Amino acid sequence: MKYSQIFTKTDKNAKQYDSVNATLLIKGGFIDQTMSGVYTFLPLGNRILRKIENIVREEMDKIGVEILMPGLSPKEAWINTGRLEEVDNLFKVSGANELSRRFNSAEYILNPTHEEIVTPLAKKFRRSYKDFPFALYQIQTKYRNEARPKSGLLRGREFIMKDLYSFHTSIEDFREYYEKVKQSYWNIFEKLGIKQDTVLAAASGGTFTTEFSHEFQTKCDNGEDLIFQVPSTKEAFNREVASSKAPEVPQDSEMKKIEYKNEPGVIGVEDLCRVFNIEANQSVKTLIFETDSKEQPVVIVALRGDYDINEIKLMKIISCTKIRLASDEVVKRVTGAKIGYAGIVNLQEGVPVYLDDAIEPLINFECGGNRTDYHILNVNWGRDVEKPKKFYDIKIAKEGDLFCETNEVYDTFKASEVGNIFPLFDKFTKVLKYTFIDKDGSEKPILMGCYGLGITRVLGVLVEKCHDENGIVWPYAVAPFHIQLLHIGDDGYKRAKELERELETNGFEVLWDDRDDISAGEKFVDADLIGCPFRIVVSDRTLSQESVEVKKRNESESSLVALSDLIPFLKV
Amino acid sequence: MKYSQIFTKTDKNAKQYDSVNATLLIKGGFIDQTMSGVYTFLPLGNRILRKIENIVREEMDKIGVEILMPGLSPKEAWINTGRLEEVDNLFKVSGANELSRRFNSAEYILNPTHEEIVTPLAKKFRRSYKDFPFALYQIQTKYRNEARPKSGLLRGREFIMKDLYSFHTSIEDFREYYEKVKQSYWNIFEKLGIKQDTVLAAASGGTFTTEFSHEFQTKCDNGEDLIFQVPSTKEAFNREVASSKAPEVPQDSEMKKIEYKNEPGVIGVEDLCRVFNIEANQSVKTLIFETDSKEQPVVIVALRGDYDINEIKLMKIISCTKIRLASDEVVKRVTGAKIGYAGIVNLQEGVPVYLDDAIEPLINFECGGNRTDYHILNVNWGRDVEKPKKFYDIKIAKEGDLFCETNEVYDTFKASEVGNIFPLFDKFTKVLKYTFIDKDGSEKPILMGCYGLGITRVLGVLVEKCHDENGIVWPYAVAPFHIQLLHIGDDGYKRAKELERELETNGFEVLWDDRDDISAGEKFVDADLIGCPFRIVVSDRTLSQESVEVKKRNESESSLVALSDLIPFLKV
Is B109 near chain A, with CB under 8 Å? Predict the structure, then answer.
């Protein structure tokens, strides 16, 4: 194909966006930003999308069957699962003007995911034990009202996703299939050329199960996730579920005298460390939470000052599904003080207390005074506050933390999620009353899994992963074209024209830069920016040796290849 | 592929929908209705969609380049073209619940078409005369707030469309490309097997041009359009723009005495024909319209009672872009009577009158009395009302009408639109200030065309076109599978298993009905319903002759084909 036919032009002056993928894809003319979080795929980008889709489709066809569900769904579907008011990125659709609303004033949902659609659909067709297991997938456009779209194709309001849903009559069958999907995903990432840099990381299983879901995370300097990997076993965890033990911090050898400090307005770890001249890791911050647990509607939680609360861990410990920081009123009732002065000394009886294990070894620590404007210094276990029998891991893991089971320091690295597999168990089948009839005629529950892979997101991650200072370096399997062909001089032009056809006849996709209004130098720069795996230059000089100059995008040196050897050379 | 793997089952008890395509596609398990006007494409349907897409893509790639624009667009894009309040099926998108709106309360448009997106996009990349012409297309999902979705896949609220947009620097270049697109569409319809039953019909060019747009209309018993074709030239017109001359109706030879009738409450042609015992074609109905024309803000229009007003024709005559039936007040002012009693006798001076040419030959006709509760019988030209110098064609054509230019009676037939090509000229480029820089450095206007082809609609029309009383009869090029394979008996099962692989190795797509819980008879019925081009049965009986039974879906007789001849037989 000729460059003049692909519509776009590179824009070397394009601004820097908040991510490498947005910057390079826009600069290279792969995508155009229609608005924040919403993109048009230009010819180059669209070709890559199609290739990623086909790689995914090829693997999915081995373990499921393709369908295409709609973008719109009835509100009732979301009321039925109780998620209409719950999903915080849900979009609705309605008539945009008076003319449109006059004949149809109904509102619909613009699906961010399809459990609400696929479950009733499956229920229509498959009810007998003989019908199981089965799995349906689609490659389809999703819409999510992201508060802050960012990182180019990594987090948008509109994106293309492959979503697979599987249905099972037993937990064993579900688990077997779950492993099959893992393998299928590994095959996909291998074809995409990112398998070696991708790990399978455990992540939260949501509020309805204590089991993990799993994310395929590709190591990436600008990745939005921090992965904690156990060096000995290579087990990996998303930060949100990484169990963590704080590395030891030197402590005083003797207890100091307790001090009550009246410091009005000193609130927050940073503030009080400055005022009292202590380290954050010598302070204990106390938080009060309200929960949806009947037994424990209010809980007190304390962490070392340099750690943040991990609400997922806390909810698992309490066995609840929702928590939020307590209101002023509740804090006042529990601690006797305004917000900002909660501590673990002299706490009211009857409210459960959960202390993070990082505060267990502390000597002479600071905590709130449970009295407005008061903090306490040099608090000590046993002397000032009873040491609980049990401490918990309720902190968000930090770099340098240890894996609880083996006491190894985690390897940590940034990564971008490229796929996510999720045990849904009976979350949707139960509420939507989807059961199967077993051999003996009895009705039994159905288990589900869902498995996502963002097509447009993978495109973005590929760019984050595969680029250098000059532009993108596409893996062969997804490159918009295999070869970018450049000519210099009139003979070069003539030979390039023939060569384009020859190469295409041999199954190569060729982007021939036929533009006559820019210099060869600019074309070289563009070729690097666009990043096809091979650059071929044909000029009077190379032709004088019956050759062309071939350079691989991921190598720095070019080589002169005889025209007669070119095809075999490229096929290697 | 095994039938047990395609997820769906046929549903012979499925209800009758309002169209053949909905009924057969749902019955056969090709699609599922998610809600009114919104469908899920099940595995069988999805395979067909993909085939249609690929046929379309193959042709489009010859005359344009593929991109993918988003479903969402900013409201501003629609404000810029003035269409935010104008497009009567426009959908908007906003946060569906409080959580969602809390962080982003913005509203977006869910695109029903993409001129608002593609024009600014083109403007970003192509400004020099050297950049033209060019054309961009996409295959993408559209959303329209249809007042009343109907006819299955023919008119939905969500559908897949191929939309192509072309940009030109001269009218000659535009016209040349327009012809190229026509040819491209003919190639597509030929591949889809419907070319011979499809006509290119002129249709309205919209309010901004007096030129026609063109629709590809496929003859179809349940088609939603009525096409008027000139027998001698084969020129075809959509009803909305078919010029029409009414066939002659016998008239009295002498004028009768005029009669003024006081009949309170007799309003409308049907009513007064009954009361006065006359034919509708002997009555004249008079309508008052308000328009957006400065010179003619109100016009009087009269038609023969058996014809309806064609507003498109009327607007062209008046040179206005909007009309509506006049308010009670305006009617009262113009006619001196309440609505329902307007006539063409004793009209107020100064209001323009447009009379349809079907009323010119009338003798002793009825019309309203321009006085509340009064009608007049036996009105005559010359005697009772001055005969105007000019009559107009402002009626909606009816079956039996004549083509004005040649006085031939039109051939009329029902048809379904499968494609539509539209000269936009400078409608969007002008308002969006998209100009090009010519050789001499001057800025000049750009002309546009847009060209639609509904992928899901074509699927629906194919079913409307290609079915019999037993089910669908898919054209080979789009059939979900080429062959439906059935076995009878244990040997049949074993041989079918081998045959499936053999046929697939030879490039055939095979749906093997491997179900063991239904009878052979039911499988035969299902095979007809699903409608693959070939049905192959392998049984002990056929095997005893080293043969299989082959039946083409569009033939009634099956034949015994030796296994050794099968592949060549099928390839014919």
Answer: yes
Q: Which of residues 48-67 of B touch A (CB under 8 A)?
A: 49, 65-67
Query: Strand B108-110 to strand B91-95: parallel, antiparallel, or no bridges (unpaired)?
Result: antiparallel
pTM (predicted TM-score): 0.93
Q: Which of the residues B3, B42, B98 would you substitute to probe the A interface, choosing the one with the greatest number of A C-beta atoms within 10 Å? A: B42
Mean pLDDT of chain B: 95
Which neighbouring-strand residues pair with A534?
A483, A552
**Is the separation of the CB atoms in B269 and B305 below 8 Å?**
yes
CA torsion sign, A278 to A283 to A288 to A292? positive
Cβ of A141 and B141 within 8 Å? Answer: yes
Q: Where are the beta strands (DSSP E) in A244-340?
A: 259-262, 284-291, 298-304, 323-325
CB–CB contact B100 A87 (8 Å): yes
Please indicate whether, in this complex, the C-beta atoms of A99 and B110 are within 8 angstroms of each other: no
Chain A residue nearest residue B11, CA to CA: A125
pLDDT tens for each residue of A484-529:
999 999 999 999 999 999 999 999 999 999 998 899 999 999 999 9
Rounded CA-CA distance B510/B488 in Å is 17
Residue ranges with strand state E in A426-491: 435-437, 443-445, 447-454, 467-468, 471-472, 483-488
B481-571 belongs to which homologous superfamily?
A: Anticodon-binding domain (3.40.50.800)
A9 interaction partners in chain B (CB closer than 8 Å): 125
Contacts of A80 in chain B (CB under 8 A): none
CA separation for the pair A195, B178 (Å, rounded): 48
Whose CA is closest to A397, among A501, A483, A313, A300? A313
Which residues of chain A are in CATH 3.40.50.800 domains?
481-571
Pairing of strands A483-488, A510-512: parallel
Q: Identify all chain A residues contacting B35, using CB atoms and an 8 Å cutoff.
A: 72-74, 108
CB neighbour list of residue A339: distance below 8 Å, 6 or more residues apart: A267, A328, A331
In the predicted model, is pLDDT for residue A208 greater than 80?
no
Give the residues across from B2 on adjacent strands.
B512
Q: Determine whether A11 is exposed, middle or buried from the number of CB atoms within 10 Å of its CB (0-12, 13-18, 19+).
A: middle
Q: How far apart are alpha carbons B107 and A94 in whole angstroms?
A: 10
The most confident of the ranges A45-54, A260-269, B199-208 is A45-54
Partners of residue B480 in chain A, C-beta under 8 Å: none
- Highest mean pLDDT among A131-135, B10-14, B514-518 belongs to A131-135
Q: Which residue has the tokens 């192959």?
A: B536
**Could you tell me if A212 lies within 8 Å of chain B, comparing CB atoms?**
no
Kindly report the CATH class assigned to B46-71+111-243+413-463.
alpha beta
Q: Decide if B137 contacts A179 (C-beta within 8 A).
A: no
Q: Where in chain A is the domain with CATH 3.30.930.10?
A: 20-71+111-193+423-463
Q: How far apart are CA B217 and CA B501, in angstroms?
A: 40
DSSP string for B236-285: EEEGGG---BPPP----SSPPPPEEEE-TT--SHHHHHHHHT--GGGBEE
In the CATH scheme, what architecture does the domain A20-71+111-193+423-463 have? 2-Layer Sandwich (3.30)
Q: What are phi and psi of A83, to 5 degrees?
A: -100, 0
The 8-class DSSP code of residue B454 comes to E
Question: How close are the terminal C-alpha atoms of chain B, in Å?
Answer: 23
Class of domain B259-379 (CATH, top level): alpha beta
In chain B, which residue's Cα lies nearest the Cα of A118?
Answer: B40
DSSP string computed for A171-235: HHHHHHHHHHHHHHHHHHHHHTT-GGGEEEEEE---TT-SS-EEEEEEE-TT-SEEEEE-TTT--
CATH 3.90.960.10 residue ranges of chain B are 259-379
